[in-house]
Amino acid sequence: MLKLPQSSTDRKHFMIVGALVVVTTIILGFFLLAILPIKAQASVQAEPIRWLFQLHLWLIAFLFSLVVVFMLYSLFVFRRRKDDTSEGEHFEGNTALEIVWTVVPLVLVIIFSFIGLQTLQQATSGGDDVQVEAVGFQWSWTFDYPDGVSSAEMVLPVDKPALISLRSNDVIHSFWVAEWGPKQDLVPGMTTTLHITPSKVGEFSLACAELCGLSHWSMLAKIRVVPEDEYTAWMDEKLVAQNLQTASR
Q: Which of 17, 40, 48, 157 is deepest in the core (most CB within 10 A)?
């Protein structure tokens, strides 16, 4: 049975590899963050998702470095030298090491499961100060507000919790505004919900994130997040137009 390294040479190798793992993790972590940028966060629910996503990238960078650095270091440093025909040293394993690489991943899975559940709870909770129903169909969207107001664009007040009810008229669609973070499927025959508290004023693009047919790529809609007084004025204008239309019938 192979014993843990005791000699100064063994300790030196582990110190070198440890330093290389740290350096490689840092370089790879920043590289992944650079090539996988997260869109500007524009809702309260987006922040915990961004944090968890970045945490996963750093974990990926560390695990990749841990495996690859050890492997490459061993290939280069402990390779057979020229004219060396001797047998390599026989060893069978290391019980302590096997326990560590079994227990540590299990603990990491449990920790990340707990963090994931907390993040999911934060990303799916909120109030219902504003209510709107988003209806998806091949291949467009409509938005229905209380009092019968209907619109081809969604307008929400900034910093107000909104409850968005989601319904599909045909196949499965998925409601996704990249800057808001969470996605939610629209399932035929049932109503799903999404809590969003917009935190930035601006125009955003709603896309269907579920392959839903030939023109899935064009299933887009405009979403405007505006100050509360502008939202109130927009809603009043819609109500007046609706009343005039009803009276003319």
A: 157
SS3 176: strand
Measured distance CA(235)–CA(150) in Å, rounded: 10
Query: Which residues are 157's β-sheet partners?
Result: 226
Same domain, residue pair 159 and 174: yes
Of the two residues 247 and 117, the one the predictor is more confident about is 117
With 0-12 / 13-18 / 19 or more C-beta atoms within 10 angstroms meaning exposed / middle / buried, residue 54 is: middle
Total domains present in the chain:
2
165-194 pLDDT per residue, tens: 999 999 999 999 989 988 899 999 999 999
| Residues spanned by the domain of 173 | 130-247
Q: How far are the Cα atoms of 45, 182, 196, 224 from residue 199, in angstroms, in the given order?
A: 9, 14, 9, 12
Side-chain-side CA neighbours of residue 143 (13 Å): 20
Where residue 36 falls among pLDDT bands split at 50, 70, 90? confident
DSSP secondary-structure letter at 248? T
Would you give the distance in Å from CA 218 to the centre of its chain? 23
Q: 3-state DSSP: the chain helix, strand, coil percent, rounded to 5? A: 45, 20, 30
CA 89/CA 33 separation, integer angstroms: 42
Same structural domain, 144 and 107: no
Smallest CA-to-CA distance from 218 within 206, 226, 234 is with 206
The pair of three-digit structure tokens given for residue 58, joined into one six-digit string: 């750093």
